[in-house]
Amino acid sequence: MAHTGGVHCAGFGTTTAQLLELANWLAEHDCTHVAREATGVYWKPVWQVLEGELELVLANAAHIRNVPGRKTDVNDAMWIADLLAHGLIRASFVPPRAIQQLRDLGGPTIATHDCAAKAQ
Q: What global pTM score does this model have?
């Protein structure tokens, strides 16, 4: 972990225990808002652990692209934090947890099957 000029920076793993450590670390640093880039499904575990504890913003990667150059995870995190601090991230829609769970169970198959049954 590094701390310079009012910026705290730390890395965390992706297991549930490690994400809970992240949640504790954010609480210790009085963090109230978290922005996460929506890349595939990688945002979901972080979201599930932090949901209800903090104000979460899921950002479309295309909307928060940084200027090309020396790209690192730390630089990306600092860029996203700066955008969030200035209110420059348009939050992507994240359905309520119950809907997310239904989607995880059946995905688009449920809707497709339902439509096909009604058409007959």
A: 0.74
Q: Identify the CA nearest to 74 among candidates 8, 5, 6.
A: 8
If you write DSSP's letter for every residue of 14-40 in order, what string do you get? SSHHHHHHHHHHHHHTT--EEEEEE-T
Which amino acid, residue 54? Answer: L
Strands 2-4 and 33-38 come out as unpaired
- For residues 9 and 3, the answer to whether their CB atoms sit within 8 Å is yes
pLDDT of residue 39: 85
Q: Which residues pair with 57 in a beta bridge?
A: 35
Residue type, 62: A
Give pLDDT tens digits for 30-43. Answer: 999 999 999 888 99
